[in-house]
Amino acid sequence: METRETYIDLIVKLLKAEASLDEKQELLAWVNENKANKKLYVQLKDIWEATQASTSHSFNSQQAWYQFQEQIAEKIDDSKRQKQRQIYLNILKIAALVIITFSASRIALPSKTEVHRPVAINEVSVPFGSKTQITLPDGSKVWINSGSKLHYNSDYNDTSRIVNLIGEAYFDVVKNPEKPFIVKTGGLDIKAYGTTFNVKSYPEDNFIETILVNGLVTIVNQTSNKQIAKLEPNQKTIYYKKEAKIAFENKIMKPEKTPEMEKIITINPKVQMVLVQTQSENFTAWKDQKLIFNSETFDEIVLKLERWYGVNIKLMDKKIKDERFTGKFTHNEPLIQVLEVIKVTTPIKYTVKLNDVFISADK
């Protein structure tokens, strides 16, 4: 017979998006067994979401950790603390997901003339369903989107300003002509010179997208070390990865699929890059908790909703993948409310089971 602690472990795995299909089904059956089980699941999920919300605008991992501990402690009766100690420790696993910052020492080879100090790597990891904002040592600000990682060396700003990105981030860079700000991602070096811009570079996407709000950005191919693009405000580049040749060809062969407010300026087949005139707000509003869809297909919508809400979404009918939706949500609306609005103009129906959402065509 499974213990209560076992199901708490399953809830932790679900919130970390690590639960298998069998584990999700097992947990769903347990939650539906009685009101007490359902109450525990809802409490833990609410605490997780509340902790995420409290750290969405400012980066303070220590404060988030203590806050989570205090909230959990309040739910454990004094007379039962010893008995439930293991449950408490299991629940605290969730807190580790809020923001993970760690250092890994990396020591350079010593020379005869100088002594090298250990260089640590600072990493900020943001789980799906959350966002955070940090300030770098030079005063530059970074908003990091869900499912993303940003890391930089501890000697950042000594001789250079380099960060590495996996996922999506919005940068507000302090101007320093002597030290260009460089974002390394997916084989590209994105160089900024006192600039505000957004970079989207998720591993599962076919492309890397850079949008300039103001200032100046140049993009350099790391392999050839050649500049392949220079952006002006309200322009974006879509750089298709080598393995995404078909996606690139579809983009240039089917211009009718480009949203009305966008206009292709140039196409560079040699490096599989498209330069587009656009409205930067549509791509940077996420940092202000605004969810915007601009004539996007359901394939694109599903990815955005999964990252935004930290859920798994399955499209049950292939024919709805190419359906398009345009809409703006400006008050951090719950997922159910967003789906209900989409239903008004799009023939869909949906079912929600824990962290899984199933969308099908409404016949």
Can you walk through the features of this model?
The protein has 363 residues and is α+β, with helices and mostly antiparallel strands. It folds into three domains: 92 residues, no CATH class; 170 residues, Sandwich (Jelly Rolls), CATH 2.60.120.1440; 73 residues, Phage tail protein beta-alpha-beta fold (3-Layer(bab) Sandwich). 29% of the residues lie in helices and 32% in strands. The chain has a 15-stranded mixed beta sheet that branches. Strands 17-20-19 form a three-stranded mixed beta sheet, with helices on one face. The protein is globular. It starts with a helix and ends with a strand. About 8% of the residues have low confidence.
